[in-house]
Amino acid sequence: DAVERGEFRHYMLKEIFEQPHALAETLEGRIHNDQILEAAFGANAHHLLDEIYAVQIIACGTSYHAGLVARYWIESLAKLPCSVEVASEFRYRQPLPNPNALVVCISQSGETADTLAALHEAKRLGFGPSLAICNVPESALARAADMVLMTRAGPEIGVASTKAFTTQLLCLLMLTVVLGRRNGTISELEKVIVRAMRSLPDQLQKLLELNQEIKQIAEEFADKHHTLFLGRGVHYPIAMEGALKLKEISYIHAEAYPAGELKHGPLALVDADMPVVAVAPNDTLQEKLKSNLEEVHARGGQLFIFANHRAIMQGSDFVKIIELGEINEYISPIAYTIPLQLLAYHVALIRGTDVDKPRNLAKSVTVE
Ligand code: G6P
């Protein structure tokens, strides 16, 4: 066990640091001439992806958060309507079937009972063809779906999912590109996105260098009972994933909000005892997010801002800025995930929890 972890104290840390390699594996052999190969989705993909006019994503936990990111991509880039739902709700809701909707089930293990049952329910109801985005080739989900796109993250031992999530995101971006190409909505953009995908391993390697800085920041969370994570747009689900990581392994209550909803409740909770983490890339929503953060600041909240550049706000004792550097907008959600994983890890380490096997949680939930 110690051998497999190598120099790392926990599997989770090892798996965080494996991400540059894992993402390179995800892309391996799936790109040609700056285009995503449709064959990556299986031999039948060419035919099965015909007449897809909508996407229904189904998943649980961290995999569900990957699906939420994909909705922003699929609607804005491939211009197809996309719904995302947790499997345990989808399977009992009696959703209206759309035979032209591609059903995308995302699961690291491929054995999550609700996700499997939801796939069978979607088939029974008459939804369109299904695609499993999965990390275990021989899993029940991979066998049940019409198409499979393996994430190729390698075995993930830590209960809190890390490399499975970022490789799922990359697979979903590949899917977006393929659907967008078919729908005639991305043309020249495909090259730009594919090049950004290729740059991911190097970009993530640089972001892992934030480890020491984040280790220091983690000290400021260790004695807190609550935290708020804020994001907007495609980075809102990344804030949700950051909050989930923190609660899973540090047992600190963490909640994520789309920053535009601050005034509708969470602002009442803001005080010096509740750190506020903001995922704040320089995208079209940054100005709006900044004004949300000013409100937190004005109410005495302690801010930790993850941003491309320090210039986003004046730093102070109450405003800590963690600089990620320039990042292409299409891969930005993947990049911003890394420092949030490190934050959760270091907070848990200080609190002395069982990082790889948090209490009450299982790696794979195979019963309802
Ligand atoms: C459990 C794990 C999570 C995971 C979720 C879904 O809750 O602890 O890390 O995200 O199940 O698992 P799946 O294998 O379907 O992605």
How is this fold's topology laid out?
Blueprint: H1 2-5, H2 11-17, H3 19-27, E1 31-32, E2 35-36, H4 45-48, E3 54-59, H5 61-78, E4 82-86, H6 87-90, E5 101-107, H7 113-125, E6 130-134, H8 140-144, E7 147-150, H9 163-182, H10 189-207, H11 211-218, E8 226-231, H12 236-250, E9 253-258, E10 276-280, H13 286-298, E11 303-307, E12 319-323, H14 332-351
Parallel strand pairs: 3-4, 3-5, 5-6, 6-7, 8-9, 8-10, 10-11, 11-12
Antiparallel strand pairs: 1-2
Helix pairs in contact: 3-9, 3-10, 5-9, 5-12, 9-10, 10-14, 11-14, 12-14
The protein binds 6-O-phosphono-alpha-D-glucopyranose.
Summarize the structure.
The protein has 368 residues and is an alpha/beta fold. The protein is built from 14 helices and twelve strands. It binds 6-O-phosphono-alpha-D-glucopyranose (G6P).
* Main sheet overview: 5 strands, parallel
Order of helices and strands: HHHEEHEHEHEHEHEHHHEHEEHEEH
Give average pLDDT, whole number. Answer: 95
Q: What class do helices, strands and sheet pairing give?
A: alpha/beta
What are the bound molecules? 6-O-phosphono-alpha-D-glucopyranose
Identify the strand order in the major beta sheet: 4-3-5-6-7
| Helix fraction bin | 40-55%
Q: Tell me the total number of β-strands.
A: 12
How many helical elements? 14
What Rg is obtained from the alpha carbons, in whole angstroms?
20 Å
The low-confidence runs, each spanning 5 or more residues with pLDDT under 50, are none
| Silhouette | globular
Beta-sheet strand percentage?
Answer: 15-25%
Distance between the termini: 30 Å
Domain SIS: 45-185, 217-358
Protein name: Glutamine--fructose-6-phosphate aminotransferase [isomerizing]
Subunit structure: Homodimer.
GO cellular component, one term: cytosol
